[in-house]
Design goal:
Layout lengths: L2 E6 L9 H14 L3 E8 L11 H6 L2 E6 L5 H10 L5 H4 L3 H13 L4 E5 L6 H8 L4 E5 L4 H13 L5 H24 L2 E4 L2 H10 L8 E2 L6 H14 L1
Parallel strand pairs: 1-2, 1-4, 2-3, 4-5, 5-6, 6-7
Helix pairs in contact: 5-6, 7-8
Length: about 230
C-alpha cells in the first residue's frame, strides 16, 4: 500500500463538473488500495465542513484545505507585464497552501505526490525540494498550450477579438515553456485523451516514459439508483 498525497485546485466533493468529477473518482479508485491524503483549495462557494465533505473524509486518511487566494484584474495585469510566467500558475499561488504542503511533506513520507492540473504544477518544485524521494505524477487535465493556441486562432477571425488574440499569443509562448517544464519535471504524466497525450508528448524532451491516458468517467450506478428512486416516488 502506497502513501499518496493528492493536490487539487478545488474540493472534489460534491463532484458536479469536469474537474471535481475526475478528481473525486481518482481519489475513490486510489483509496481502495492505498492511503490517500488530500490537500485542496476551497472555492468561495464550497464548504470544507465535515458534513459537507463526508464522502471525502471516508475515503482519505487526511484532508487539508486552503482558501482560493483573491486575485484582482490589476494583479493579473501586473503579473502579465512583470513576469515571464503564463497566467494559469499564478491563479492559485498561495503561501497558505504552500505552507500546508511543506508541513505534510515533513510529517509523512509520501511515496507519490499527484498534482491535478496545470494550476498546481508549480507545487512540483516544492515537492522536489522537500521530499526528493517522492515520485511525482502530473495529471494534466487539458493540453493547455494547444487549447490556448486554438483560442487564439478563433479570435483572429474576428477583428473585434484581436486584443484577446494578442493576449492568447503571449500566453501560448509562455504556456509552452511552462507545460514543457511541468511534463519534464514529473516522473509520470497522465492525460484525459489520446489527443491530449499526443500534444503533451510533443512538448517533452526524449526519451521519456509514455504518457498514460486516464479517461474521465462518471458513476453510472449512481444515476441508475437515482432513476429507480424517482420511479418509486412516482
Amino acid at each position: 500500500m502506497a502513501r499518496i498525497l493528492l493536490l487539487t485546485p478545488q474540493l472534489p466533493y460534491p463532484p458536479h463538473q469536469g474537474t471535481s468529477l475526475r478528481n473525486f473518482h481518482i481519489i475513490r479508485g486510489l483509496a481502495g488500495r492505498h492511503e490517500v491524503t488530500l490537500l485542496s483549495f476551497v472555492e468561495a462557494n464550497q464548504s470544507a465542513e465535515a458534513a459537507a465533505i463526508a464522502p471525502l473524509l471516508a475515503l482519505c486518511a487526511r484532508v487539508e484545505t486552503a482558501a482560493v487566494p483573491p486575485r484582482t484584474t490589476a494583479t493579473r495585469l501586473r503579473q502579465l507585464l512583470t513576469t515571464h510566467s503564463p497566467d494559469m500558475p499564478h491563479r492559485l499561488h498561495s503561501q497558505a497552501f504552500n505552507l500546508k504542503l511543506r508541513q505534510l511533506l515533513a510529517e509523512t513520507r509520501f511515496d507519490v505526490v499527484q498534482v491535478e492540473g496545470i494550476e498546481l504544477a508549480r507545487a512540483m518544485a516544492i515537492v522536489r525540494a522537500a521530499s526528493p524521494w517522492s515520485r511525482i505524477v502530473f495529471d494534466d487535465h487539458n493540453a493547455e498550450t494547444e487549447l490556448q493556441r486554438r483560442n487564439m486562432l478563433t479570435d483572429l477571425r474576428q477583428p473585434r477579438r484581436w486584443p484577446a488574440a494578442a493576449y492568447s499569443w503571449v500566453q501560448v509562448r509562455r504556456l509552452r515553456r511552462f507545460e514543457r517544464w511541468a511534463c519534464a519535471t514529473a516522473d509520470a504524466v497522465t492525460a484525459v485523451s489520446d489527443g491530449d497525450a499526443a500534444q503533451l508528448a510533443a512538448l517533452r524532451p526524449e526519451p521519456r516514459p509514455p504518457i498514460r491516458v486516464i479517461p474521465n468517467c462518471i458513476d453510472v450506478e449512481a444515476y441508475r439508483l437515482a432513476a429507480e428512486t424517482a420511479v418509486a416516488a412516482d
